[in-house]
Structures are given as C-alpha cells and as structure tokens.
Amino acid sequence: MQNIKSKRNFYKSFFNFFFLIFIYCNPTFALENKSQSIENNIKINDNWRTVLNKASGETIFFHAWGGAKNINSYIKWASKEVMQRYNIKVNHVKISDTSNVVARILSEKTAGKHENGAVDLIWINGENFSFMQKHKLLFKDNWIMNLPETNNMDFTSNPSLLNDFGVPTNGMEMPWGVSQLNFYYDSKYLKYPPKSAIELKKYIINNKGRFTFPQPPDFVGTSFLKQVLIELIEDKSILKSTYVKDRHEDLLTPLWAWLNDVTPFLWRKGINYPTNYMSLTQLVADREIDIGMAFNIAHASNAISEGRLPKTIRGYIHKKGTLANVHFLSIPYNSSKKAASQVFINFLISPEAQIRKQNKDIWGDPSVLSMNKMLPEWKNKFKNLSKGIATLSNEELQLKLEEPHPSWVKVIESKWIEKFGSSK
Amino acid sequence: MKIKYYNRLLKFILCLFALIILSPTFIGFLGVLFPAFGYFPALGGNYFSLNFFNDLFLIPGIKKSLLLSLFTGFFSTLLALFFSQLILLYIFNTKIFYYLKIIISPLVALPHITMAVGLLFLLSPSGFIVRALSPRLTGYDRPPDFYLIPDEFGLSLILGLVLKEIPFFLLTSISALEQFPAKKLFNVGKSLQHSNFSTWCLIIFPNLYNKIRLVIFIVIAFTSSVIDMALVLSPSTPSTLSIRILQFYQSTEINSIFIASNLALVQVIIIIILMLIWKLIEMIIKNDYFFLFSIKFLPRKNYFLEKYLFSLAVFLIFLSILGIINSFFWGIGNNWYFPNVYPETYTLNHIISFFNENKAIIFNSLSIALIVSILSIFIIIIWIESCDYLSINKPYLEFLIFIPLFIPQISLLIGLQTFLIKVGFQNYLASLIFIEILYVIPYCLILLGPALRGINKDFVSIGASLGKTRIQILFLIKIPLIVSTLLTSFAIGIIISLSLYTPVYFIGAGRITTLTVETLNLATSGLREDLGVATVFQIIIPIFILLIVAYLNKKFTKWIF
C-alpha cells in the first residue's frame, strides 16, 4: 500500500515538474503580474483611466504582416513594453497577406460570431480598409480621437492621416506610419537609374532579365503597377473616382501595353516573380537584378546596416514623384479586447515608440507625429535622428503621388493575374 | 458471464475510440464536400449545385496547375523509388549497407522545407554552384539570367521531392528487407550469373514491393499535394493545384471558399487518378509475359546501369547534403555577395537573435511534438493490446488509421477549419494536438505495430503461467523487449510532428506557430540569413533527438531476442 502511494506521489511530482517547466518557458501561459503604469507626460482623463483599468490583464492578438525581421523585432519590443507598463499581453500573429485576415473577420461575421473574434488588432490600409469599412467590420467611428497620444498629430495640415487611398477613414483607423514607393540601385555598377516609366521601359528592354517586381497581389507589386499606370495615364483625376467597368476599362490599356512590351525582358522572362519586396533585396544583393523597390523609405539603409546590402546602394524616386500613403492600425468590430487594443495603439503612436520606429537601425519607418505639437525635448530627439546613407531627404521625397481609389486595385490585380500571372 | 460483459464493454470502448480518432477525417471530408457543391449556409450558399464544377476550367491557368500536380506527384514517386532501389542493390552486399541506416536517418528526419531551401541555395543562378565556378570558369561577374530553380515545368519541385523521398524509401525498404530472407535470395540470383541489377529486378524487388506498397501510395498522395516544398520550388505563374487552393482559401472574396473546397475535391480526384495509373503499371508488370520478357531481355551484365546510374543516385544524396551545409553557412555568414564562394565575415548574431526571438516558438514546437508523440504511442499500444485481447485480427481496421495520409492534407484541413469556425471551437492547442496525432500515428504504427505483434508468444505465456496479469505482462515483458523500436518510433513521432506544416497553418490559425511554419514565412520573404538560421535549427533538433534516442537505446536495452 505504502509503496503504491509513494509511487503515485512520485508521478504526481513528476508531472507537476513538467507542468511547471511548461508554464515557465511558455510565454503564452506566463503569469507575469507587473502592472505598474508609468504615465507621467500626459494628464489622463477619466475615460482613458477606465480604458486602462479594463485593459489590464487582457491578451490581444495583433495580426500584422510578419515577413520582415526588423519589423517583427520592433513589434516584439513594443509588446514587451506594454506588458511591463499596462499588463497587456500582445501576441503578434505573423501573417503573409492582410486580405486573409479580412476574409477571416468577414467569415466570422457571416457565421454570426459578433463577439470574441479571432482578431483584436490589424495592420491595414488601402483596399483592405475600404473593404472592411464597406462590410461594417470595424470598430465605431472616431475612436482614434479618444486616445491621449492622438494630440501629437496634426490632422488639419496633414489631411492624409484621415484619408486612406482617398477614402475618408472617419477616424476608424489610427495612422501608424508613412510610406512612399522608392527605388534603389547599386551606384557602383549603375550611374543613371531610369527615373520614369518610359525610361524604365527602355532600361528593361536594353538590360534583359535585370528588372522585376514582386508578384501581384503582393502590396508592393500592385503598387508598382499603379505607379506605372499613374505615370502613363493622361488625366490622373479619373483615378480618384470609383472604377466603373464600362467607362474606365480602356484607361488601363496603356498599362497593359507597357507590360506587354516589358514582360519578356523581365527577370526569368516574367515566368517567375519574387514573392515580396524582401526577396527583391536578396536579388539586388546577389546582383541578379539592378533595381529594387520598397515602400519603407529607409529600407535600403536598414538593409545596409544589417549587412544584407552593399554600402554602395543609393535610393531614388521617379521624376514625377511616386505613390505615397499612410499605413494604419485598426480594431475589428467583433474584438472583445478593444480596451487593450486601444492602450497598445496609444503606446505605438507615442513619441517614444515612434522615434524608435523611425530609427533606421531598427525599422526606419517615418513617424506620423507633428513636430509642432510634440514637447520640445522629443522634437530635438527627432531632429537629431540620422537618416541613413541610402535614404532620400524630405526635399527629395517631396513629389508624392496620390493613391488611386481602392476599387482600382482589385481590377488591376485580377487583370494582371489573368494576363501575366497565369501563363498560357 | 461477467467476462463476456466486460468484453462487450471493451469492444464498445474500442469502437468509440476508433470513432473519435476517425471523426476529424470524416468531418474534414464533409466540410470540404458540402462547400464544393455550393452548400455553406453561413456564407449564403443554401443549395447544392454543380456551378463551381462548371466554372472550374474558367479559372485562369487552372489546367496547367492540374497538370503540374499530376506530373510532379507521379514522377517524383517513381524516380525516388527507382533511385532508392538502385542504391540498395548496389550496396546490398557490401559493408556500407550496415551503416546506411545511420547515414540516412538524419536525412529522413529533415523537414521537407529544409531540403527545398537547401536546393534553392545550391542551384539558383546566384547559388553555391554558380558561385563556385564564377567568375573563373563561367566568366560571370554577376548571376546569369536563367531560371533553373524554380523552373516552369516543376522539375525542381520533382528534384526536391525525389531527394526527400529517397531516404524515406531507403529506410522503409531496409526494414522490409529484414522481413524475408533477402540475403539468401540475392545470393541465389548471383549464383545464376545474374548481375546485381537483374537479381534485384527479378527476385528481390517483387518480394520487397508488397511490403512497401502502402508507403508508396502514401508518398504518391503526399507528393502530389505537397504545399511547403511547392511554395519554394514550384513555378509561380501559375503554381501547383495545392498552392492554388491555398491562394483561393486566403482570398477576400466570399465565393473563393467554395472554389477552394471545389479544388480540394479535385485534388482528391487527382490522387485517385494517380493511384489508378500506378495500379495499371503494377498490372502490366505483374503480367506473366512481361516477367518472361524481362528475364529474357534484362541484360545480365550492364555496366551502364550499375555504374553511372548509381553514381547519379549517390550524387543526388550528396547534393542534398551539400545544400544543407550551404544553408548552415548562410546562417553564420555576413556580407556575402556574388560571386564570393564564402561570406566576407562570420557572425553568430543571426543565430543568437533568432533564438532569442523564437524561443517560445521552438519550445512550443518541441512540447507539442512531445505530447503528440507520447499520446500516439499510448494509443497504438492500447489499440494493439486490446485488439489482441479481443482477438480481433482484421487488417482493414488498421487501414482506417492510414486514411488521413491518403487524403490530401489541404483538402482535409480546409474542411476541418471550416467546421471549427462554424462550431466556434476556440482551443487551438487542443485541436492542433488532436489533428497532429492523426498524422503521427500511422508512421509510428508502421514501426511499432510489427514489433509489438512479433513478440515471441512463449514469453507471454510463461509470464501468464506465473500468474501475471495482462498489464504486468505488457510492462514487464513486452515493452522491455521492444524498447528500442519503441524509442525509435517515439523519435519518429516527434520528428513527424515537428515537420508538419499544413496542419499547423490551418488549425493553429496563426495563434500557434511552430518552427516549420516560421521557416516557411522566412523562405517566402527570401532573406537567406534568417532562412539559414531557421534551417540550422530544423536540422539540429531532429538530429539531437535521434542522438538522444540512440543513447537511451544503449542504456535501456537489456536483452535482445
């Protein structure tokens, strides 16, 4: 009898031991309890205090594109900070395409799941946002105005913060960063990069197999197509209206003609395309292609400082300017942890988090805050930030093109897939 | 009376058990079948219809995707089988044969994605081979513009699959060879003046084939629906059917879930077609006339086959090892530009930072694998023991366990995922473990089943005559006797679980990620340094597990009969 009992105890302690290891090592189960909110700079109003109280102890699932290590590390850092300060646990769900997440939320809505949705926070812009807005998948209007740190933004002199691809956001998504399509090349081998769609076409035809773009529907790939379209189209203002098939189909002809001429001369004859802008970086580093592109203006500098690109890389944009847009953070309507999501967003747009994001050695994504609205100490810090060798200056980036209406995106994508993305 | 009642109860429990194990397969299949015919009320499909089948061929590029899947599935299985037999027949009578198992075990343990990445590093225009020859021999001061990998016809995907399946076929063939007096038969053939090759074709292979037939069909089903490898190695405009399904599944449009389910059903049909083709070939080869023909016309001495094809097979294995070594270098290199054969600088930073960022993921993968493997072994032992107790001996029951391997993973999992969302089941970990068990049990059973059944009955009856109960016999006699096989199948269970991609992707739904999923994320982003590091971990962990098992084996094996 005695023997059996001691054996049972042994097994019990054995299992307890493993269980403890499991809990200890696995952050999903971690029972950390350091809830010290260190919030000095801003006076907290009562509403916000209740949000903070509600948020403490919650776990949120942040669905954000996870293809870049530096961005992942940044999100990891931010998660750690909010864990310490507000006792909020952020799980970064690394996705490859935001539209999958949107599809998931939509299927939850159609299945009648209006609470406890799988997604608490989403990194989004453009057609995904307009899709969610159209299907009423987003948290209420103007919630972004309730966050204390929103005070550092200047919406009047920078209306792009409230417009996503020309669609008014109605305060349903929080600006997180600014991006502009930019190109880079190795100055050691290439003296004069082609600075317009027409020049680029000549360049591609003369340099067989040395240019490519990420395969649409990748974000950067589609944006590149939009860039070419804008440069080729005569009346750009049409692009701001909703796409109507009967009226606008012919307007796309110059784009398809351009691609028809160019595709046989692309890298791998246009039979294969890289998956995203990160793979372009690798191809430029290998010198398989001559020109890379990215939406993050510090991408090339960042890659140089990580030892992925040679130091002779330089950036440029097209003469007529390039597409520029803002990327946002938003909360789905069926998230049950809206408080925690808001607190996390509030942290992400604080000067502290934004300056770290703008640092080229960390991420290099420009801040959305207004210099005039920040406290002087932060203003100085932002001014002293170095921008990196391959990053263009604000003056050079001045020519910005506006995004076409989101309805054009789906058309361009699906037409491209039909014409070029599913060979014969 | 009482015993009869007890038996009936046990039978009932066994049935229930089987039902629970098989329910995901069933549900998954229904979950894909209904939407395939347009029925999915939550998304507005209230009626069954054949519309999606009619629209099937309107999807741009779908015909090529279908052909790609058929082509890669068939040829990769055929070639892998061919080369594995070639290697075996050449070294069967040599000393290397005894070491073969050790050489190939790590290769079997390697996840598919690692092999794909290794190939990518080797063969791409900026890869190791071109670098090694440039610029001295080729004159390239920058990578040439040819597309060797991934190519338009899926040849590199076939190469990758062949490389991965050769070791698998070798391993299963070796254990099959142990089940019949292969040595004697081989010597008989040789004494009749046959060459290694003709002996193998005429005498050994027909015996061997029946024993590995099941494995071949599993490989067919797997290779024609593979996802992780295809994402890296298949052409992208358009890709294989499995990738197309994935793309539709991920699309924002509501209709795409119907299309995805529809295609998933087509994927099942493709596998059935491939198996029928294989069966047809079997019938031709089994034909008496064919046999007579081959006896007459198979050359008894054929240096070409013996030497050149064998060196080709060895070259293939060498290629896979080289690819892996190369990925190691990417893991520790910095500033490595074309055409440098070696990195300019070396650093451990990539590895350290990867480990720090993914500690949780590595731990998750390991603990899930451990739980899954333990549970699988438990289930198998209980299953076999109770079947033995009730003297149920029906092979088709066991076939049920293998069903999940014959249905393409993507078809089954899309169905299951749809079901889970519908029901609103939230425990991702539990469902993932449950599903992984489905995929791990068959492999463990292949190893453990014969061992447990093959135990000399005399030991058992001696134990019983000494008044030991069944459970005591199991723990005191049976398990100690098969401890080495038990540990090996335990390790295989862990390794299979670690290498699963599709189940984690669908069931884990981003909430739970494992190292394999993370590696694939990095593979598509194309950053070789990170990819190299992830690969390092994917190689080290399985090898580490195999080493532990080898050590434990030595320690625990007391008697061998």
Task: Put the structure in a nutshell.
Chain A is an alpha/beta fold. Chain A has helices spanning 2-25, 46-55, 69-86, 98-110, 126-134, 197-206, 219-232, 245-248, 253-262, 277-285, 299-305, 338-348, 351-358, 376-383, 407-419; strands at residues 59-65, 89-95, 121-124, 163-164, 167-168, 173-180, 182-186, 291-294, 313-316, 322-330, 400-401.
Q: What coarse outline of chain A follows from CA principal-axis ratios?
A: globular
Second-tier CATH architecture of the largest domain in chain A: 3-Layer(aba) Sandwich
* Unreliable stretches covering 5 or more consecutive residues of chain B: none
The portion of residues assigned to helices of chain B is over 70%
Rounded radius of gyration of chain B (Å): 25 Å
CATH homology superfamily name of the largest domain in chain A? Periplasmic binding protein-like II
Order of helices and strands of chain B: HHHHHHHHHHHHHHEEHHHHHHHHHH
Strand content of chain B: under 5%
Contiguous runs where pLDDT drops below 50 for at least 5 residues of chain A = 19-42
Instruction: Tell me the count of domains of chain B.
Output: 2
Q: Determine the N-to-C terminus distance of chain A.
A: 77 Å
